């Protein structure tokens, strides 16, 4: 996978920049487009088959700028240009995650320097859709909807309008050290109650280690836990939203983690910190809650004792036995900007690099071997031979096939991100930190987040119900 950013408390400058864009951009940004998208849906473009994909005929010439942090992204450009020699793509690494978003918000506000295609994560899509920064590309890509895992298309759509092409996803699973489980005769938990029981038992058997860790600096990861539990914190579109952050289920989720942290069975720690890196390498955690890309982005870079620890992947524990609902942590999109002079060409590029078989073969290949290291949103990627191979980082378990290909369609399709993710993450991290430090209850912490988010959203001009 790509290098992920931890959703630490964002700087005031970034939140301010996004707020300025939201209030100042309206429904357009940057240069005016010379190819405005028709308001009609699929069928507005004449299609041809390109590497198995039905894509628009495009005979003109275009030069696009693409902001992305995908490993080995130039290879994606090279493949695309073989099929579309009339469309040239200039790749720019504007930084990953927050670094890129700050630059993107700045150029949108400035009205110049806006890329044609920009890589965004699912959780910030509503923010940029609300600002009018992104182009509706449905006239050119609606026919591709069924080629993607259904919930991912929901993340890039508002009604019939489509604002980007899903690239990759992060269905959540349980990673565990089979060496420790064998040593202490532990069972891989299938429910969260079992997870808690195993955690307490493990800590009694070996007080020097933790059963797992809680990423206290990653609001996106925390929301992945809520997603998997069936929570629906946000519902709506446009200016009308319902906010339900402090639901009983959300209280239940964080209360479980609070109890395990208080008992010493789980460590609350900033993921990515030097201490955390040291602990991963030392095998201090018997388990970890991670995405399909966890092995390539966390274990391979930070655990240099994989042969000893023998990590494997399992299905995420269930809150209710038999309810196989999952959530997502991470995942990204290639979105076309409203400022692009060539939105049709940009839409073709975004679709091709994320769904064409020639691209998918590259995308799912390990980054260390020159590939993208992605868990693809396009379901055809599941059929690529390299996707199905045993994973040496997971004791040669073919985890993509055994676990994550099955978890992917279980991701709750009703979950939505709000237009205020950056603000929400900051508030959640702060308040949950207070609760875990014993300064307030979990219920009070979530109520505080609820109140703060509702007030913030209303201050930004949104109609909010609770």
Automatic annotation (TrEMBL):
Tell me the domain of life.
Bacteria
Q: Which positions make up the signal peptide?
A: 1-22
Q: Which PROSITE patterns match?
A: PROKAR_LIPOPROTEIN
Show the Gene3D superfamilies listed in the entry: Periplasmic binding protein-like II
- Which Pfam family, just one, is annotated for this protein? SBP_bac_1
Keyword annotations from UniProtKB, A to Z: Signal, Sugar transport, Transport
Does Transmembrane helix count among this protein's keywords?
A: no
Check the record and name the InterPro entries matching this protein. Bact_solute-bd_prot1, SBP
> Per its UniProt record, what PANTHER family does this chain match?
ARABINOSE-BINDING PROTEIN-RELATED, DIACETYLCHITOBIOSE BINDING PROTEIN DASA
What's the protein here called?
A: Multiple sugar transport system substrate-binding protein
């Amino acid at each position: 996978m790509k290098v992920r950013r931890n959703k630490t408390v964002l700087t005031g400058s970034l939140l301010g920049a996004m707020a300025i864009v939201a209030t100042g951009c309206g429904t357009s940004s940057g240069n005016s487009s010379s190819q405005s998208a028709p308001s009609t849906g699929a069928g507005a473009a004449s299609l041809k088959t390109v590497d198995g994909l039905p894509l628009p005929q495009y005979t003109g010439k275009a030069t696009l700028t693409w902001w992305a942090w995908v490993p080995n992204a130039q290879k994606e450009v090279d493949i695309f240009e073989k099929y579309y020699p009339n469309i040239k793509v200039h790749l720019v690494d504007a930084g990953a995650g927050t670094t890129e978003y700050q630059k993107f918000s700045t150029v949108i506000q400035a009205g110049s320097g806006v890329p044609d295609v920009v890589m965004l994560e699912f959780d910030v899509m509503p923010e940029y859709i609300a600002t009018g920064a992104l182009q509706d590309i449905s006239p050119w890509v609606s026919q591709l909807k069924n080629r993607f895992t259904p919930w991912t298309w929901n993340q890039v759509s508002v009604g019939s309008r489509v604002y980007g092409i899903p690239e990759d996803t992060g269905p959540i699973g349980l990673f565990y050290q089979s060496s420790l489980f064998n040593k202490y005769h532990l069972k891989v938990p299938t429910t969260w109650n079992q997870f808690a029981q195993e955690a307490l038992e493990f800590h009694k058997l070996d007080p020097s280690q933790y059963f797992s860790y809680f990423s206290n600096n990653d609001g996106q990861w925390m929301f992945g836990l809520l997603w998997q539990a069936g929570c629906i914190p946000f519902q709506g579109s446009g200016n009308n939203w319902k906010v339900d952050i402090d639901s009983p289920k959300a209280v239940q989720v964080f209360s479980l983690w609070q109890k395990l942290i208080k008992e010493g069975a789980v460590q609350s720690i900033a993921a990515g910190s030097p201490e955390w890196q040291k602990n991963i390498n030392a095998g201090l955690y018997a388990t970890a809650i991670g995405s399909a890309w966890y092995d390539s982005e966390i274990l391979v870079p930070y655990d240099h004792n994989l042969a000893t620890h023998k990590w494997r992947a399992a299905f995420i524990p269930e809150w209710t036995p038999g309810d196989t609902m999952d959530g997502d942590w991470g995942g990204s999109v290639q979105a076309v900007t409203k400022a692009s002079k060539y939105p049709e060409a940009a839409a073709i590029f975004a679709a091709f690099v994320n769904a064409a078989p020639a691209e998918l073969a590259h995308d799912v290949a390990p980054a260390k071997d020159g590939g993208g290291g992605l868990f693809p949103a396009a379901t055809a990627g599941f059929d690529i031979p390299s996707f199905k191979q045993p994973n040496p980082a997971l004791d040669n378990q073919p985890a993509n096939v055994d676990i994550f290909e099955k978890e992917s369609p279980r991701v709750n399709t009703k979950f939505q991100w709000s237009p205020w993710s950056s603000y929400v993450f900051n508030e959640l991290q702060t308040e949950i930190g207070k609760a875990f430090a014993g300064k307030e209850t979990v219920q009070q912490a979530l109520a505080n987040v609820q109140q703060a988010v509702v007030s913030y959203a209303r201050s930004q001009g949104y109609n909010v119900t609770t």
